[in-house]
């Protein structure tokens, strides 16, 4: 998807596109087999070095013609993120290069695939550049590649493209190629260790011209050494990024998240059950290795000398160790390239965050229990989860995370949205979205998706609501009644298409008949066991979106008003992940069971934001908004309502108090002010005459019980950029 793609329409059809498409062509393997620890294609993990190299090359043919600060600015708002695609060798025969998008680079790492790519290149009228780790005629060795090789090739590509289609408007591309200049190089001030924990930040800095010398000194076992190195490099990236924040372009295309948080993990069932390696003496060393992985807390696998000797002497154990090394290496560079594409800092967390799952399970159990009604006990349990997460992260990395100005991207399975930052869970303190680390192939597909999707507020006027609750269900009418109550507020700003479904076929038909951008599902969700597959209940049937994803047309935005659609204590096979695997750009999912009435209120307020809020804030006097911001603001206001609504109902505050606190919160969250929660809490404390300690305790209880911490944004909501034509005209665009 290109950097100028929009829902329902493509870029101008007669303008030659400047983007460079990097195809990482992986060896042919069985597409139904995946690596055992995270679920990557075996072939793709061999290509990590290719992905690592992309950060040193331009993202489009305009980039080398621009000043380095302009290049950095285009990174920050995602306009110049790299377009790269993992492609199986057997699939390239179906690809064809057009004059409209002619700038392609094929990358290979093994002899058989390189030869296949050579044969395919020979069939193309506009041949791509071939970068390979294998020597061969017509290829450029990976270790020798420089941007000038791309320039030489792309000048020839440009001429061939113009011969193929002389009607193309190529002025922008021609000017870029004519003014192409070597990227300035800035030596970094000190040697850096060559370790996975620092590679993503090096990639971000390499993307804007920094060069590094690898240190001879290795990082030792102490996790504090790793944290200091990560924090120092992350601070350097954030400082480089901050120099771009005066760009006027950000009014129409806001900056992307400035911090990526990564935490490689294992499939959830491995933490509980192991890997199923052979029993007896034959599998002794392999089982010991898996136990080390299960118990890992820092950045290195630690074990006694004899255990390591047994592993190093064992073929099965060494095979597993090599697989795990390649899994982590590939995830590191894939997340690193995504972060580098937006000049973002990366905070790599220690494995201890994945060992907080015991506290997470306890929180989940309490949230599902009818007996767990005490706000104080629920707050205590949630506080224990937060403590475990914060303890694992450490103060130095918490400081870096707290410094985020434009949002946080999680690449993790652990519920890091609950990490405590400035008195709030991270997911409410900052604008946060998440890509799960398992299954690995889905993770890579989502990380590789970098093209911005530009929408106007009009794209949100048509909304599909699928009601899948049986008529006799006690909660079947709650959302529909709530929407009817809010309809006078919506007016004619939105058109709600409400479809009641009772069967699998009706569910499929409702989705496939809808051409809009937003679908809301109202129903029950379920997810049994750590190795089970999540389902949605449609009428009396349980259906899995994993089984349907090739049969249904999935809109770019999916809102799941259902329980456990991204369950915090279950397997990777969640309903939210299934929608993402089927093509959704982003899904709002639930970590825990949600209250039906609260969920209905959240949906009603979301529709209001689409009907009234979006047109207002993205208009002539406003700015463009990312979808991630829209949802984050909604969740913050939901927390405010959970604070003040019970007080109004109990008569503890007046309607005027309620209105004043709510309006101030709307203004503060819209203006991206940090004090929205503290201001509301202080107002309540002043009205009720509470001491600071009791007010803080009340705040913790409200947070722990609120559905605002149960919902999370998954996928890539920040890629959806919402702006009005009035705003663009005010910025001088001729539309």
Automatic annotation (TrEMBL):
What is the superkingdom listed in this entry's lineage? Bacteria
One Pfam family here: CHAT
Limits of the CHAT domain: 491-611
Family matches, as InterPro entries: CHAT_dom
Protein name from the UniProt record: CHAT domain-containing protein
Q: What is the lineage of its organism?
A: Bacteria, Pseudomonadati, Pseudomonadota, Alphaproteobacteria, Sphingomonadales
């Amino acid at each position: 998807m290109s950097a100028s793609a929009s829902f329902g329409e493509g870029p101008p059809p007669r303008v030659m596109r400047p983007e460079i498409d990097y195809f990482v062509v992986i060896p042919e393997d069985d597409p139904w087999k995946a690596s055992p620890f995270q679920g990557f294609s075996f072939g793709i993990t061999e290509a990590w070095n290719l992905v690592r190299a992309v950060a040193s090359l331009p993202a489009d043919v305009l980039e080398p013609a621009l000043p380095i600060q302009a290049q950095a600015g285009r990174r920050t708002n995602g306009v110049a993120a790299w377009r790269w695609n993992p492609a199986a060798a057997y699939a390239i025969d179906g690809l064809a290069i057009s004059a409209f998008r002619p700038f392609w680079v094929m990358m290979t790492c093994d002899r058989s695939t390189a030869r296949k790519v050579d044969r395919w290149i020979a069939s193309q009228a506009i041949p791509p550049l071939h970068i390979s780790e294998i020597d061969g005629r017509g290829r450029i060795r990976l270790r020798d590649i420089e941007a000038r090789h791309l320039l030489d090739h792309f000048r020839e590509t440009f001429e061939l493209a113009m011969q193929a289609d002389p009607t193309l408007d190529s002025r922008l591309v021609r000017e870029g190629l004519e003014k192409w200049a070597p990227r300035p190089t800035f030596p970094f001030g000190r040697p850096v260790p060559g370790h996975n924990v620092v590679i993503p930040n090096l990639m971000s800095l390499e993307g804007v011209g920094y060069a590094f010398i690898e240190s001879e000194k290795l990082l030792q076992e102490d996790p504090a050494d790793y944290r200091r190195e990560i924090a120092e490099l992350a601070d350097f990236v954030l400082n480089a990024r901050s120099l771009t924040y005066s760009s006027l372009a950000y009014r129409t295309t806001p900056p992307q998240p400035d911090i990526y948080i990564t935490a490689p993990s294992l499939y959830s069932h491995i933490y509980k059950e192991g890997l199923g390696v052979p029993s007896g003496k034959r599998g002794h060393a392999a089982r010991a290795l898996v136990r080390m992985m299960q118990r890992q807390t820092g950045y290195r696998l630690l074990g006694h000398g004899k255990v390591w000797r047994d592993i190093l002497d064992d073929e099965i154990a060494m095979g597993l160790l090599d697989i795990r090394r390649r899994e982590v290496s590939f995830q590191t560079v894939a997340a690193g390239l995504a972060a580098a594409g937006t000049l973002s800092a990366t905070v790599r967390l220690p494995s201890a965050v994945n060992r907080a799952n015991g506290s997470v399970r306890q929180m989940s159990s309490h949230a599902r229990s009818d007996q767990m009604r005490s706000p104080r006990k629920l707050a205590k349990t949630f506080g224990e989860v937060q403590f475990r997460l914060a303890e694992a992260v450490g103060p130095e990395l918490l400081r870096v995370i707290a410094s985020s100005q434009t949002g946080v991207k999680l690449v993790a399975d652990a519920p890091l949205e609950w990490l405590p930052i400035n008195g709030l869970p991270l997911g409410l303190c900052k604008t946060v979205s998440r890509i799960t680390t398992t299954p690995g192939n889905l993770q890579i597909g989502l990380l590789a998706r970098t093209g911005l999707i530009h929408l106007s507020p009009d794209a949100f006027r048509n909304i599909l609501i699928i009601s899948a609750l049986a008529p006799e269900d006690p909660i079947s009418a709650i959302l529909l009644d709530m929407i009817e109550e809010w309809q006078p507020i919506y007016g004619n700003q939105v058109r709600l298409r409400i479809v009641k479904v009772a069967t699998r076929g009706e569910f499929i038909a409702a989705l496939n008949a809808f051409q809009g951008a937003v679908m809301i599902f109202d129903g029950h969700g379920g997810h049994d066991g750590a190795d089970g597959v999540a389902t949605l209940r449609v009428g009396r049937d349980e259906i899995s979106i994993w089984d349907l994803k090739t049969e249904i047309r999935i809109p770019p935005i999916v809102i799941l008003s259902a329980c456990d659609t991204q369950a915090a204590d279950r397997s990777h096979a969640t309903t939210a992940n299934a929608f993402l695997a089927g093509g959704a750009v982003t899904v709002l999912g639930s970590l825990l069971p949600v209250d039906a009435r609260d969920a209905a209120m959240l949906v009603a307020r979301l529709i209001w934001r689409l009907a009234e809020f979006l047109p207002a804030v993205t208009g002539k006097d406003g700015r463009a908004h990312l979808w991630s911001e829209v949802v984050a603001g909604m969740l913050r206001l939901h927390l405010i309502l959970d604070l003040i609504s019970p007080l109004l109902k109990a008569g503890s505050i007046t309607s005027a108090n309620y209105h004043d606190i709510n309006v101030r919160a709307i203004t503060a969250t819209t203006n991206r002010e940090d004090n929205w929660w503290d201001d509301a809490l202080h107002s309540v404390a002043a009205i009720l005459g509470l001491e600071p300690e009791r007010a803080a305790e009340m705040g913790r209880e409200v947070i722990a019980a609120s559905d605002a911490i149960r919902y999370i944004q998954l996928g890539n909501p920040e890629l959806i950029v919402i702006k009005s034509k009035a705003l663009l005209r005010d910025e001088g665009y001729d539309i």
